[in-house]
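in:
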């Protein structure tokens, strides 16, 4: 193999990683360990807490999944058999339904549409929700037109239109056709309104053209706002925030109602909000849990407004939180779910979005597709990953909760020993965050400089990798927070290694003789 003299694969990022000592080359991975190639050709084991941004709950190269992958290749599984029957995909959606029904205590089916990445699943969900909205808008417009026809017949039969109706629409009293024309015009104008997407502040839903407008971080989002419909962001865990926005966005169509011998104005709701997207535990935005009370408000306000709730469980789902769906722990049932990351067991690239029957439009399947999605390999691996999670009555979920509680206790003890440096410990299960206080005024110049640049989390990551063989990153949109997402095979020895590393990192923030970067 030849190596080119200049780096052509995202060289800016590599330069940046190099500055922080994060430019390791990993040549092997197993369980919670990534093996970094050293200058002398040897391998250095590194404890991985980044866990593929949450993709390896079942560990790197899980032996059972690797064995299955081998088997599938040996059997010459038809990876490319688009436009044919896909029983493995159907089986996967069926089993996901069983989990969903158990955790939410419902029996309504959810249909599945496949994708290859998190952002793609989110965009498919948003597209589906918009198709549903557009069809509902058309139905509402048709209903208004039908109301005009009914009124026209009633007027021909001697009914009278109340005068207020003419005045409200600014047409001459008694001129029914002028009234009907104006109502049609206003209806068409309202129906052509741009849709509204709602998402939570500090939420992350991907970085593609559509999904980046649902991701809150302005650094990622604002350069591309002209490419797609911008979202309205709802304040996180703030009571009243959802209902207020839904009220502000409400649009009513005016129709005619025949009431005995009179014709008067009536109202009909126009669906304007396509969907409300949220992560039950925000990942990239700093490990923040949606509270049960806020969840209840979201559920009731959206249900009343007829707005579908899209729950992004791409990172929080598949058992990481201590249940398959983190949203089930706060009693928030979604109309849509997006799953990816650990769905592929850390081996395959898999994603799926699930849509509740009540909202499902089969015609979506005719207008949406992806070459790679729904293939035999990724679906069969995902089925096995799900089987591993569900084994022994859901032992994996209990394990995630227990291991998470152990790690959280360690993080809490560090916080209670250093309340001036550690601000908060958040999350549940194997999705935890430890937030440092702002260190811009730290007396150690190197620390203050990194903090002022918003890079303290990366500097600490570089330190932990260099000195303690721990791979961890801050959440990219909240860089004072370190994110912990180890696998289900996290051991006591590894927890001890994390504690020692973190205590040493805290010492670096106090001791000018220690090197941070
Ligand atoms: N939704 C959530 C909740 C995510 O955490 C991510 C990715 C995505 C969607 C997009 O998925 O990258 O496969 O297109 N999160 C990574 C992170 C980037 O750092 O947490 P993707």
């Amino acid at each position: 193999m030849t190596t080119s003299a200049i780096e052509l694969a995202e060289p800016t990022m590599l330069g940046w990683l190099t500055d922080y000592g994060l430019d390791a080359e990993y040549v092997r991975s197993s369980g919670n360990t990534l093996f970094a190639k050293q200058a002398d050709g040897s391998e250095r084991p590194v404890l991985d807490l980044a866990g593929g941004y949450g993709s390896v709950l079942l560990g790197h190269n899980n032996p059972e999944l690797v064995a299955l992958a081998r088997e599938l290749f040996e059997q010459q599984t038809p990876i490319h058999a688009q436009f044919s029957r896909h029983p493995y995909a159907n089986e996967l959606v069926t089993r996901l339904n069983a989990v969903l029904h158990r955790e939410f205590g419902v029996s309504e089916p959810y249909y599945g549409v496949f994708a290859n990445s998190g952002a793609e699943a989110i965009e498919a969900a948003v597209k589906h929700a918009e198709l549903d909205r557009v069809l509902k808008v058309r139905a509402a417009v048709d209903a208004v037109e039908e109301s005009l026809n009914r009124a026209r017949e009633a007027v021909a039969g001697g009914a009278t239109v109340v005068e207020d109706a003419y005045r409200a629409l600014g047409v001459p009293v008694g001129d029914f056709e002028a009234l009907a024309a104006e109502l049609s015009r206003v209806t068409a104008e309202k129906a052509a309104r741009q849709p509204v997407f709602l998402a939570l502040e500090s939420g992350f839903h991907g970085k593609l053209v559509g999904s980046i407008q649902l991701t809150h971080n302005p650094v990622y989002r604002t350069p591309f706002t002209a490419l797609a419909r911008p979202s309205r962001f709802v304040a996180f865990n703030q009571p009243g925030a959802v209902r207020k926005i839904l009220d502000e966005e409400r649009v009513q169509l005016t129709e005619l109602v025949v009431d005995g011998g009179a014709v008067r104005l009536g109202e009909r709701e126009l669906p304007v909000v396509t969907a409300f997207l949220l992560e039950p535990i925000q990942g990239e935005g700093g490990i923040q849990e949606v509270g049960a009370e806020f969840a209840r408000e979201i559920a009731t306000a959206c249900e009343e407004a007829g707005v579908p709730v899209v729950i992004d469980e791409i990172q929080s789902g598949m058992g990481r939180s201590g249940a398959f769906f983190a949203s089930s722990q706060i009693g928030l049932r979604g109309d849509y779910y997006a799953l990816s990351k650990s769905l592929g067991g850390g081996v395959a690239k898999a994603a799926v979005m699930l849509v509740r029957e009540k909202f499902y439009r089969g015609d979506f399947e005719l207008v949406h597709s992806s070459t790679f999605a729904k293939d035999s390999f990724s679906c069969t691996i995902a089925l096995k990953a799900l089987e591993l999670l569900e084994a022994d009555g859901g032992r994996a979920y209990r394990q995630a909760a227990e291991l998470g509680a152990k790690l959280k206790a360690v993080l809490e003890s560090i916080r209670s020993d250093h309340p001036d440096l550690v601000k908060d410990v958040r999350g549940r299960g194997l999705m935890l965050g430890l937030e440092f206080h702002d260190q811009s005024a730290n007396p150690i110049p190197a620390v203050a400089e990194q903090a002022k640049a918003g890079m303290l989390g990366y500097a600490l990551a570089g330190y932990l990798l260099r000195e303690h063989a721990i791979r961890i990153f801050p959440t990219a949109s909240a860089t004072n927070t370190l994110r912990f997402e180890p696998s289900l095979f996290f051991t006591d020895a590894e927890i001890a290694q994390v504690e020692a590393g973190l205590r040493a990192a805290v010492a670096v923030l106090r001791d000018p003789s220690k090197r941070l970067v």
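note: The pocket of F0G is lined by residues 53, 117-119, 122, 204-206, 279, 283-284, 312, 314-315, 340, 476 (CB under 6 Å).
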